[in-house]
Amino acid sequence: MERAGENRRPAAGKPVPGVRGMGNRRPLKELNNLAGAHPYPYAIAKKPMLEKTGRNEKKPALVSHRPLTRHRAALLENKQLPDHLAVAVDAAEPEVDPQNEPIPDDTAETDEEIELVGGDTDMDEEEQEDIVDDVSLMDIDSADSGNPLAATEYVEEIYRFYRKNEKLSCVRPDYMSSQGDINEKMRAILVDWLIEVHYKFELMDETLFLTVNIIDRYLEKQVVPRKKLQLVGVTAMLLACKYEEVSVPVVEDLVLISDRAYNKGEILEMEKSVLNTLEYNMSVPTPYVFMRRFLKAADSDKQLQLVSFFMLELCLVEYKMLKYCPSLLAAAAVYTAQCAINRCWQWTKICETHSRYTRDQLIECSSMMVQFHQKAAGGKLTGVHRKYSTLRFGSVAKVEPAHFLLGG
Questions:
Q1: What are 175-221's pLDDT values in tens digits?
Q2: Which of 124, 131, 331, 349 could form a disulfide with 357 if both were Cys (CB 3.0 to 4.6 A apart)?
Q3: Domain boundary among 277, 297, 313
Q4: 186 part of a folded domain
């Protein structure tokens, strides 16, 4: 049985072919999506199909009606235009009103004008190639152009949005002065403990940074007694898990991990308090989102990624680091990690372009990270150091600190 043509209805009495009977039928994306097709094709033909005739009539070629400028008219009089352009001008001449001469189109360049413009440039081919190379080097997303999850078409707009709104995720660096029963040391103990809980539950990196951000934003607006501080931390992790994780820990697990200091009802009541205080705003740019972008600009390997996150998590424990915005913390962590691994100052032009921070802008924050790195193994709060001393995290905590950064 012959298959019905693409633009022909099947003969009367013959069944319409189903999906399996399509054979080599072209996919829908190739039909009615070609240039010149009706934007809203009808499902049912409004007019009878035209029968094919034996005639093969050729449609006349479309004539380009270019405005007749004075310059082109002068060239035409001197017969300096090529034949095909002269024909086009002749076709356009009857439409020109001699009483109303069209305004000269200065933007339309003739072949002679294009040659003059090209001849006046001072840039040689080598300089042009250098510019092309620089542009290609700055494009760090070309390798992911085929990956829809990378969203390369929108990534620049996304990070412009992050930069515009990162101040919303920041808190006053002195908010602890309004707390009467807790202090920055208690906050450090809580965050260090939550890092261990995060590691034990094998949660995503995004969850940890959002947890600490929720805690700081809540403590900035609400006075919390000492006995409720751990409850705030546990509840913040529950909210962060609901926002970031695919599999969320149940409330009973959080009750057990806090040694039954709080019951399920208290956690759910605190959850409502936190959400109402923060006005349900969980969508804030944390240092994590900037870290992923800057590591990509640095063409990082596994070691650089782990050392960078080690530096950044050391900063989570320190209350004094709240004075730096998330993007600066992320850029300084990548810079400090590069210096620790390569034992030299290293901050490429690509990193500077995508982070928008120069080395001089990072040196103060990086010096503080080196100090945290030096004392990470000692003291009472060693949760981050023990985490990154495991084989799972490549034992990167044992990397020698970049002492030379302390001298500027």
A1: 999 999 999 999 999 999 999 999 999 999 999 999 999 999 999 99
A2: 331
A3: 277
A4: yes
